Amino acid sequence: MTHPYKSVPVRSSEITPKEAYLSRRDFIKAAGFIAGSAALAACAPEVAENTGGTPAVDRPAFTDELGDVANTFEEITNYNNYYEFSTNKEAVASLAKNFNPSPWTLEVGGMVNNPQTFGIEDLLKLFPQEERIYRLRCVEAWSMVIPWNGFPLASLLKMVEPTSAAEYVRFETVYRPEEMKGQGSPFYPWPYQEGLRIDEAMNDLTLLATGLYGEMMPTQNGAPIRLVVPWKYGFKSIKSIVKIELTDQRPQTLWSTVAPNEYGFYANVNPNVDHPRWSQASERRIGELSRRETLMFNGYGEQVAALYDGMDLSLHY
Ligand SMILES: Nc1nc2c(c(=O)[nH]1)N[C@H]1C(S)=C(S)[C@@H](COP(=O)(O)O)O[C@H]1N2
Ligand SMILES: [Mo]
């Protein structure tokens, strides 16, 4: 099913079937780079500009604002973290095949003047769907570039009118142990929960994603609606959300409950603060051979660094 997105604020690309574009590897070959070399990172933006005048099929239309080329649909949908289905990233896609995301309702409440329950089709109608090409940096030190479709979380929050007492936003994934066998695991406190400070939630980068590559969200990526917070480690970007609650208490999160010394509440991407068990200085971009340096705030510092003025980011990991 194709996706009803309308505006394209990040980088123009016509609504063209993904097959019409060169794959990431073809592009790297065509551009004459040795796959995965540091030269690619340095040169990609220039290449994207130089080819700007040529027809869509000859240029990498799906690039982010740094010129990084989007991962293929196949890569994005076959290497997933979704513990409700499996802890094996390559097994998630097949295990999520029969998950049925419709009908679906999203309940938005808590400290708001106007609590509401939305059907997924209401959300698609109420909020113009945009395309946002974001880097996703997993705390496990791999990354991808993903062309999401969706709308700013801020638009939804404004509609329900948070009260002045609301300081945090709590998110909850669906609980369906019959369909999601991973939810039978006693090692995790289901349902998956996440949280943001309200100013983080209101930042324009924070997206409620309903699709990718112009298609409805694949089940393995969090159908029908998931959060995307691109300057934070991937585990903050909670999938298949059924509940959003405004609160004055900092929410419990699944990962900070399981391993508080490894996964904090903020979880901002930070190459200077290592995970207790591995370095966060570099990452493996799926589809590339050599590692690239990890960027502070995953490269989104201009938009978000001010949110953390005066905070010691080495303590608030
Ligand atoms: N409900 C839920 N959301 C989740 C996860 C999960 O296991 N369950 N994994 C997280 C992690 S660790 C990452 S890296 C991203 C992966 O998103 P992707 O599979 O769409 O690339 O989803 C995040 N959201
Ligand atoms: Mo992750």
The topology string of helices and strands comes to HHHHEEHEEHEEHEEEEHEEH
- Cα separation of the termini: 39 Å
Question: Mean pLDDT, nearest integer?
Answer: 87
What binds here, in terms of ligands, is:
the ligand Nc1nc2c(c(=O)[nH]1)N[C@H]1C(S)=C(S)[C@@H](COP(=O)(O)O)O[C@H]1N2, molybdenum atom
Q: What form results from the Cα inertia axes?
A: globular
* SSE class: alpha+beta
Described by strand count, sense and barrel closure, the largest sheet is:
7 strands, mixed
> At the third CATH level, what is the topology name?
Sulfite Oxidase, Chain A, domain 2
Question: What's a concise summary of this model?
Answer:
This protein has 9 helices and 12 strands. With 317 residues, the chain is an alpha+beta fold. It has one domain: Oxidoreductase, molybdopterin-binding domain (Sulfite Oxidase, Chain A, domain 2, Alpha-Beta Complex).
